[in-house]
Design goal:
With 148 residues, this protein is an alpha+beta fold. It has three helices and six strands; from the N terminus they run E-E-E-H-E-E-E-H-H. A six-stranded antiparallel β-sheet has the order 3-2-1-6-5-4, sandwiched between helices. The mean pLDDT is 88.
Length: 148
Amino acid sequence: MIVATVQGNERGGKHITVKDGVKISGKEQQEAIDELYDKVRDIDIFGDFGIKKLKSKEWFCYMEHPEVDASGRTGIAFIVWDKSTSDETIKKTMKEIGFRNEDYRKFEKRYNKIKERLNKKRQLIFLVGIGIGLAASLIAITLSMIKK
């Protein structure tokens, strides 16, 4: 599942919210916004773009929206998705909320780089664990041979 929201560019600033590639409104929209904000309220946001992994194992992206409001300002879109969300659904959701193809490519490049870094970290932890296990086994074998 993916939810994205950004303050609209009309006067009054009504949010545009998209869930799994479909714009939502009314009570469903408000519930989705509330849930999204609950997940990210403790996240520090610096600059106009960032991707972070949440404690809930979901992903969070904040990203400057390309459209400007009536006062000439841009807004920041908030996007939260889980690991089962397909790339196609992420792309569809971002397009539906108003991002361009080049915005999606920027997002995709950074997201893939972060995922690659996390995978390397997991591999390193796994290899260190194997190394510790082998070392412990060798010590145990050596000690058992010495006692004989």
